[in-house]
Amino acid sequence: MSSINSGESTTFFEDDEPEEIAIAVMGPTGVGKTSFINLLSGSGLKVGSEMVSCTSSVQAANPFDFEDYRITLIDTPGFDDTTLRDSDVLGMIAAYLSYAHGHGQTLAGIVYMHRILDNRMGGISSRNFRMFRRLCGDNSLQNVVIVTNMWGQVDHELGVARETELATKDIFFKPVLEKGARLARHDRTLKSARAIIQSLVGKRPQVLQIQQELANGMDITETSAGKELNRDLMEQMSRHKEEIRLLMTQMEEASKLRDEEARRELSQDRARHRAEVTRIQLDSRNIVAGYAEAMMKLEQRVKESEAAAKIAAKKAEEAKESNLRFSEEQKNAQSVSADNAVIEAKMGAALPIFGFWGRLALMLSPFSLSWK
Ligand SMILES: Nc1nc2c(ncn2[C@@H]2O[C@H](COP(=O)(O)OP(=O)(O)OP(=O)(O)O)[C@@H](O)[C@H]2O)c(=O)[nH]1
Ligand SMILES: [Mg+2]
After folding, report:
1. Least packed by Cβ within 10 Å: which of 79, 238, 352, 369?
2. Mean pLDDT score, 138-149
3. What is the best residue among 29, 39, 47 to mutate for testing ligand 1's pocket, by most ligand atoms within 8 Å of CB?
């Protein structure tokens, strides 16, 4: 602890307390975001397989100390999740960021993950990256590291050639690298993960475009990310509609030729595309509601956690007092409920200790499996 003596009074400040910062991790589903976060923070957030999406909400890992900082890593679901609608993913990310900004908090950095084993920036990768660009805007790119991983799964020379392509082509990462983002490799070791974090700590936190837009009173559909999602959904829909038109022409021909089997197969195909059109329509209509619902749930859960923490702390205090009063036998009988109260009270005790990000992580953690 240091002190400043101003003559009349002495002000003490905690210069040995780590500075609290938050870093978000984004990228397509299954790219290794949660694994990266667990490695650094020692958390046990659930990791998925390559086939099925795993992280279904914005969740924060246990804060960990790194040099002079206490870091909270924020895990996010990817767009094109196999179980969530894109509108819900946008809603959850936007709500979390907007809530933080509303409380005067900004991210110190963002890690965007990309699998080097993907032989090109396919549909899912480029959609996620476009959404990421719209969420961040240009001003916060200084605080972005694009991380390539899964190097062990490609021939090294091929990986290096892909990395060069990603860094030098306009359709890939070149435009963001020119505006201050950096490219780094992660080889699944703690050393490389820490080097990535090292390059972000100490950066001046920046307001992201989506935070600024929502703070300016924009509706989520008016934000760049909201517009991009809608545009993308409409594009997907017109592709399906085009397919449906084509299939209908082919069905007519099959009917003329009395080829019943071909007609049935084409009809099944058409039903599949029609189902996709309905799904996309619902997703598009859900953009406003998805955000509103995520924000409402987040605020409600923070409120509930704060209230529960207060009650739990009081209960634990009471249990402690009554334990002291009762005989040894009575004390034993009470110990189970007292233990429960003590566990619950840990949250009550911890809430005032952590800073904003740690508190938010703690408050949402009992509920973080899903916001739905
Ligand atoms: N080879 C290799 N596999 C990895 C790496 N990181 C993660 N994986 C594997 O990739 C799969 C997905 O990892 P997750 O960490 O769940 O990926 P995620 O991005 O959080 O996925 P979602 O939560 O679905 O968005 C798991 O089987 C991991 O074991 C890596 O650096 N190298
Ligand atoms: Mg995950």
Report:
1. 352
2. 96
3. 47
